[in-house]
């Protein structure tokens, strides 16, 4: 079995060393390289590699920020690279997350790669995923709940972001969700319930089992049958706010006092 790897480091020499060692090892192929945080983010979401070697201090978007962005979509095996962050390397060592101090020797690389192979041979446990998530969060302790400011979408083999403020509503149908904007629609592949937890409840609310609407685009509520409402949105869309979710009407009313 061959595993796909991605290398994200600003130094060409480091990327070349890792590529060389991986090509010498059985069972690994380098899917892509990146020298900046945005490049790493785009490559990760495009290739979805099995393992990523990522520098903690990538230009323009650090390694932790890159992982925070992709973590809701998939969780690769991670090997951190760092030349100077000794406290963080100590924390990584204590947590059992693979890492390589820069510069690293061939022996250090192969010891780390053995660790990675062991992890790849078995599915990541929830404990491992939670532990990595705690590391990501601990690097930027939130003073309040953090919600999506933008969403990554794919269209015609291109990846780009849609600002949350530009989203009209989400429409779930089976295993996919349609993201609606005033200009066009995009397809997402995730649970509406999971998505709801990542949206700011001050702006987005669930109105029935299939729809989440951006309250900023609600133009009118019309009383319907049996305590339900018809929701009229900017752009001419009309959706039904069902009885099961009518408690969420309070959010809309509070927002518009």
UniProtKB/TrEMBL annotation:
<dbReference type="InterPro" id="IPR011006">
    <property type="entry name" value="CheY-like_superfamily"/>
</dbReference>
<dbReference type="GO" id="GO:0000156">
    <property type="term" value="F:phosphorelay response regulator activity"/>
</dbReference>
<dbReference type="Pfam" id="PF00072">
    <property type="entry name" value="Response_reg"/>
</dbReference>
<feature type="domain" description="Response regulatory">
    <location>
        <begin position="4"/>
        <end position="117"/>
    </location>
</feature>
<dbReference type="Pfam" id="PF04397">
    <property type="entry name" value="LytTR"/>
</dbReference>
<feature type="domain" description="HTH LytTR-type">
    <location>
        <begin position="151"/>
        <end position="255"/>
    </location>
</feature>
<dbReference type="InterPro" id="IPR001789">
    <property type="entry name" value="Sig_transdc_resp-reg_receiver"/>
</dbReference>
<dbReference type="GO" id="GO:0003677">
    <property type="term" value="F:DNA binding"/>
</dbReference>
<dbReference type="InterPro" id="IPR046947">
    <property type="entry name" value="LytR-like"/>
</dbReference>
<protein>
    <recommendedName>
        <fullName>DNA-binding response regulator</fullName>
    </recommendedName>
</protein>
<dbReference type="InterPro" id="IPR007492">
    <property type="entry name" value="LytTR_DNA-bd_dom"/>
</dbReference>
